[in-house]
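Hey, resending since the last one bounced:
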Amino acid sequence: MRWLETDFGLYALCPDSYVADWDGTEADATAADSAGKIVLPGHGDVLTLGGEPLPIAYLENVMTFVRWVAADDDQGLEQAVEAAVRSEDWQDLFEITLEGGYTLLDSAMGGSDVSESDVLRVDVPKGRYRVQSLLIAPSDDAEFQLDRLVSVIR
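The structure tokens again:
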């Protein structure tokens, strides 16, 4: 798993077409502790994740963002996330429209200042998604915050 870290605490799933223009203030109005959404005029919805400066990773096979709340390591985490997919405890947050390639970045950084080591690339098929959240504890001394995208078929 590749982890991304932030000093600010809020990540943004920025459309690749807008990264160079991202100035680091677009998500300032978001007060979400977990996941939020802003609209970027001309570029659509932007998913925000965070509230605290926690490391984050993305598991493409289950379309889930994983934030490291407390743990000594991430051993066995992928299996724990895959098992959590079947849980009925997911909390519905909101719906969002996404399409194409995105760059997950520290929302306070200007897009022109980020390097490949500062971002995660995320591809999301065009569609409408329900954002759901779940806190998992794969062991007695580990907690991870999950935020996943679930396709909404209309």
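The chain has a mean pLDDT of 93.

Sorry for the duplicate.
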